[in-house]
Design goal:
- Strand 1 and strand 2 form a beta hairpin.
- The chain is built from 16 helices and 13 strands.
- The strands form 2 sheets. Strands 3-4-5-6-2-1-7 form a 7-stranded mixed beta sheet.
- 46% of the residues lie in helices and 18% in strands.
- The protein folds into 3 domains: 7-110, Gyrase A, domain 2; 129-210 and 386-450, tRNA modification GTPase MnmE domain 2 (Four Helix Bundle (Hemerythrin (Met), subunit A), Up-down Bundle), CATH 1.20.120; 221-379, Rossmann fold (3-Layer(aba) Sandwich).
- The relative contact order is 0.12.
Length: 456
């Protein structure tokens, strides 16, 4: 079998910075370094994982940059191959020159995710860990980053391998009774056998339940500010963000489209959406904004229904109420710094209620706590040992494994032949193998690694 090509790519993002890193991986990584690097130490004498200073030069001895280099020799590297990193000055022209020098000396440009793909192929990471790399990079909050780092550290994989071990043990026991007469291996006791797999199925279901939390951490949750015009939605959005992002005036209907900004509360990445005020209008632009507000209300994870406590309830308030689902709506009574006229007995029952003043800031902290409580209860799962499933692909694979175990339980009750029972266990095993990579189709692998940036 031919050796893989040696690949190269920038490992740091484009732009200006103090340091830029160009990474090589493959069988010729060290020889390429030897051809372009001039320093006090020969590459053959360089100790793995140690930095050395020297010059990068073209074949005609023209200087490219003054650099620090490090060799990470196989198999003790990220990819499992010989890896070389060139730490040069972080200017775009320098990075381009260093990259061109490596390409001219025999390296090929890496495709997106190819370094991590080689780490997976060479057994440095399983597929679940490899997928966690991109989640760490894209994490939008500290809580999301911790969950991704746990997956990168193998927490999810260890749990899956434990499931696999139980299934393989059960399958081998079944196959022994299929291949050999009862007088050689004894009679199979089905009740403890069934209880073991029932317990396993329960653990899988608990892990699936953690996906709601995983989705929240990975994708973020949408929080919609809804209400009639001029109740203070834009002022409230600015107060929550801590900056003047939405236009605030005394003129009703200032916001005519949805405005979205990112916010992190208690580790939850949120998309805060300021919608157009809900009212009947003949203005085509404002009417379109109201239509979009209706759509956002249906799709939002949480609706903050804002009303003005200094005036009586209006027909436009009631119109906005009709767009809300009570179990995912917090009612916010704004302008608490003014004389309160609103009759609280006329308000519909939503999942929570907060009185506040977006202008003075009174009640904002109580609102933040209420938002976190509501979202936490909505996405709380019964994850196994606090492991969180971040990827929808992993959730779907677990559901397939659970479905196969359900079929096994039904077949057991129906006293189906052992061969049928064994088939159900093989299907469950194959589904779990898709998570760690043992049974993942090539086209799925290509899709996974294509999401990575070049150089990772």
């Amino acid at each position: 079998m031919s050796l893989p090509q040696t690949i190269v790519a920038p490992a740091t993002p484009p732009g200006e910075g103090g340091i830029g890193i160009v990474r090589l991986s493959g069988p010729k990584a060290v020889s390429i370094l030897d051809a372009v690097f001039v320093g006090k130490q020969l590459t053959s004498n360089m100790v793995s994982h140690h930095l050395y200073r020297g010059l990068l030069q073209k074949p005609d001895s023209r200087l490219v940059d003054d650099v620090m280099v490090v060799i990470m020799r196989a198999p003790h590297s990220y990819t499992g191959e010989d890896v070389v990193e060139l730490h040069c000055h972080g200017g775009s022209q320098i990075m381009r020159s260093v990259l061109d020098l490596c390409l001219d000396t025999g390296a090929l440009m890496a495709s997106p995710g190819e370094f991590t793909q080689r780490a997976f192929i060479n057994g440095r990471l399983d597929l679940a860990q490899a997928e966690a790399v991109i989640e760490v990079i894209r994490a939008r909050s500290d809580r999301a980053c911790r969950a991704a780092l746990d997956q990168l550290g193998g927490h999810l994989s260890q749990q899956i391998y434990r499931f696999v071990a139980v299934l393989k043990s059960s399958l081998s026991l079944l196959e022994a009774h299929i291949d050999f007469p009862d007088d050689e291996v004894g009679t199979l006791e089905l009740e403890p056998f069934a209880l073991t797999l029932q317990s396993l199925r329960t653990e899988m279901e608990a892990l699936v339940a953690s996906f709601d939390m995983g989705r929240a951490l990975r994708e973020g949750l949408s929080v919609l500010l809804l209400g009639r015009p001029n109740v203070g939605k834009s002022a409230l959005m600015n107060a929550l963000l801590g900056e003047s992002r939405s236009i605030v005036t005394e003129v009703a209907g200032t916001t005519r489209d949805t405005l979205e900004e990112n916010l992190v509360l208690a580790g939850f990445p949120l998309r805060l959406i300021d919608a157009a005020g809900v009212r009947e209008t003949e203005d085509p632009v404002e009417r379109e904004g109201v239509r979009r507000a209706r759509e956002k209300a249906l799709a939002a994870d949480l609706v903050l229904m804002v009303i003005d406590g200094s005036v009586a309830l209006t027909d436009e308030d009631r119109l906005a109420f009709e767009l809300c689902e009570s179990d995912k709506t917090l009612l916010l009574i704004n302008k608490s710094d003014q004389i309160q006229v609103l009759d609280l007995k006329t308000l519909p029952p939503f999942s929570g209620q907060v009185e506040l003043s977006a202008k003075s800031g009174v009640g904002l902290e109580a609102l933040r706590q209420k938002i976190v409580e509501q979202l936490s209860s909505d996405v709380a799962g019964e994850g196994v040992e606090d492991i969180v499933v971040l990827e929808r692909r992993h959730r779907d694979a677990l559901l397939q494994a659970i479905s196969a175990l359900n079929c096994f339980a039904e077949a057991l009750v129906a006293t189906a032949p052992f061969e049928c029972l064994a088939m159900d266990l093989r299907v469950s095993l194959a589904a779990l193998g898709q998570i760690t990579g043992e049974t993942t189709p090539d086209e799925i692998l290509e899709q996974i690694f294509s999401r990575f940036c070049v150089g990772k």
